[in-house]
């Protein structure tokens, strides 16, 4: 099992969008039994809440269901559970690095390091902006999820080869 955690600030806009997109892509590939997906926020402001209605509506237009997701805060133990802990921006990354022990095998990474079409390194926070910000989040997230799935496949192939040896 490969476990993926998406992290933003509030866990109501960017990381639940990535969570919903990744879930759908994993299901479409028939990999639900092999890849587990979750999301969290570095802050506790919105714990227990549903994703922002604007994020839910923008995702629904592209066929992604965020309605069942609920916000939680990222914790140090997540680094023991997840193989990928993926930050939406540099501030999220710094906050995750602050709770991740240096010896942990899983270290936080920028999610957009897996993007292939887009050159940006951060998923911009859409919370205080307009609808176009939420569309752009989805564009970036869809691209980086495809790159992430390719990376997971590579990782599993390597593991299988080392198992054969
Ligand atoms: P997110 O967006 O980190 O993508 O979930 C935000 C949500 C809430 C706040 C900021 C960003 N806030 O300040 O409450």
Could you please describe the fold and organization of this structure?
- It is a single chain.
- By secondary structure, this protein is an alpha/beta fold.
- Helices cover 44% and strands 13% of the residues.
- It is built from five helices and four strands, in the order E-H-E-H-H-E-H-E-H.
- Strand 1 (2-8), helix 1 (14-28) and strand 2 form a beta-alpha-beta unit.
- It is globular, with a radius of gyration of 15 Å.
- The mean pLDDT is 97.
- The chain binds 4-nitrophenyl phosphate.
- The site of 4-nitrophenyl phosphate has 10 residues, from loops.
Short summary:
This protein is α/β, with parallel strands linked by helices. It has helices at 14-28, 53-61, 78-81, 90-99, 131-164, and strands spanning 2-8, 35-41, 84-87, 108-110. The longest helix is centred in the last third of the chain and has 34 residues, at 131-164.
